What we know:
- Two copies of one chain form a homodimer.
- The first copy, chain A, is built from 13 helices and twelve strands.
- In chain A, β6, α9 (208-223) and β7 form a beta-alpha-beta unit.
- Chain A has a six-stranded parallel beta sheet with strand order 2-1-3-4-5-11, sandwiched between helices.
- The longest helix of chain A has 16 residues, at 81-96.
- In chain A, α1 (13-20) packs across α3 (39-52) and α8 (179-192) runs parallel beside α9 (208-223).
- Chain A is α/β, with parallel strands linked by helices.
- β2 (100-105) of chain A pairs antiparallel with β2 (100-105) of chain B, so a sheet runs across the interface.
- Chain A binds a DNA duplex through α2 and α4.
Amino acid sequence: MPRRSEPGKRPTLADVAERAGVSAMTVSRVIAGNYPVAPPTRSKVLRAMRDLDYVVNAHARALAGATTKTVALVLDDATGPFFAFIARGVEQQAASEGRLCLLCTTHGDPERELAVVELLREQRAEAVILVGGAQDTDTYTERMAYFARALDKSGSRLVLCGRPSPGPDVPATVVEYDNEGGAYAMTAYLLANGHRKIAYVGREPGLSTTDERVRGYRRAHADHGVAVDEALIRPGTFTRESGAAVTEALWEERTDATAVFAATDMVAAGVLKALRGRGVRVPEDVSVVGFDDIPLASDLTPALTTVHVPHEQLGREAVRLALHRGPEIEDRVVLGTHIVVRDSAAPLRP
Amino acid sequence: MPRRSEPGKRPTLADVAERAGVSAMTVSRVIAGNYPVAPPTRSKVLRAMRDLDYVVNAHARALAGATTKTVALVLDDATGPFFAFIARGVEQQAASEGRLCLLCTTHGDPERELAVVELLREQRAEAVILVGGAQDTDTYTERMAYFARALDKSGSRLVLCGRPSPGPDVPATVVEYDNEGGAYAMTAYLLANGHRKIAYVGREPGLSTTDERVRGYRRAHADHGVAVDEALIRPGTFTRESGAAVTEALWEERTDATAVFAATDMVAAGVLKALRGRGVRVPEDVSVVGFDDIPLASDLTPALTTVHVPHEQLGREAVRLALHRGPEIEDRVVLGTHIVVRDSAAPLRP
DNA sequence: CATCGCGTAGATACCGCTATCTGCGATGCT
DNA sequence: AGCATCGCAGATAGCGGTATCTACGCGATG
């Protein structure tokens, strides 16, 4: 007895072929549609497929053919609007390119990150997209270079999204956004509004994004001929609590700052809270601005003037670039940022 | 010349075997560790694997063996804290069970949902987890029953997470949370605080979650011997805008409500905004409560008293239940909800 | 001393699909 | 009419693993 479609087992190409009275190859061709099949044959096959409720086996296909039609997204944590929006961009673009999206999280654990990359090598994902700020150290660079090469050997492309590039000669694609430009524009906006004592709250040491933003902050000062008061650049982490604590400490020390540039919107939320607690009015007494433009920004009172980061587009580009590569196509892209004016910043009042 | 590990091609079991001077089966056994292999042989093999930087091919393994070690998560949209937290739970549990997590979004489009389920059938994911509120109609039930059976035939388990059950005899697992209980507890809390005119804002018609919450709202009234003023139950969608608009309309009509039970925290945000706009103080003049306990809730001013939904645990349970099934194991679970008291509700002032 | 059993390692047969080559009747061209 | 060509379908050979059955060396056993 030949191999039959026993009940309970999922039908295979061969089962469909038998039912349609053709060979398995013909069925494969009808599905792929990349080879001429006579219309009557085609419809017989389609009929059989429907009758059997046939579904191709993606794994068999991936094994026989070349491509897995899968991209992988690796992030610290899926909650948090920053990541969520990038994830949405990635997923959307992946879907529109007919790809499935694998999601992994590392919770900032390097060991887990390594394990995840290893797992994704097994999966032969077409692209592995690493998202999120990172310490820009030698260790980091080496690590990414290793990942890039390891993934490359396994046939996938490493994409660094919003992370520093590991340098040339590394088979990776980089999608960034203009941290410096955004910080420059925002600082310039405050300066143009008469502010001269602008505190920068939440410089997380060693983090690439921070460094770039501070660079923009400095350059704007320089271009406006205003000296930077180094004591106004305050370190801190990217949390609401840190924003509040740093603001408290600053105001305890001095109260001459007329504007606060928070490293992120989340930090800005903390700043606002601390200022409110001290009875400082925003924006009448002090202007406060942020960076990221997450939904929270427009929910704060007052609505936060901030730098818009195109998170979703970042995700889309990551997928697009990884999938369509070629000699003519750049493997590094920097997306623009721009300021969004809301209610938390106002001209300096004499 | 026998098949060699040509440079540029990923090494296979055979390559490792050749280098170690053993057969492919032996290598497979070393990796699987489910069969005795003599220690010297084992180390030769491990050595060869390291030298070649061998990585198994997950697709070949899935094809030959039975299991794909993959669970899939389908949601409307990855942004939005509600989904994000469920996603986190799913991803974490999946990871801890050694599974990878596929992420798909539908944007509420039924056609896309169908396509996604079809795609996941191809992937032979062990579990397909559908998340999010749904219209509890006959169409929905039929649809889910169809999905359940289709996926079952393809060897995956459908999990409905926070969605109504499609009824018995359908091969699906259901993970819900206690909407009615939460609404009951919250309403009882308000009643106990002296409130008698409690508006329910944001009853989205036909949505299962809504119906259950309103049921809890009614039952609490009944148990406290308070008649429900039907005119205080106001329809609306689960958005901030709707919350604000509905509140405006209600206050335009009458101002005797002393408390507002918003269908979700997001709606509550709108309610708060509208009340603030009218100069109504919360909680001094009117108490406002929500449902969900998303991070936003504690960020609002005043911090929102709300019903906590264990989103993350919901995700974890979905994976756990789908993966470990058996005669002794329930395929339907209802997680508890409880109220979280913050600052937006206060005892009625005479 | 023949036999048995045990511990290992190899051989072989798929899993379900696609790439490629072959086969063959119907056309087209001269 | 003769032969190359074309359109379509089948046969075959992997892709890279795992299950299963067989083979073999060696010490223990009767």
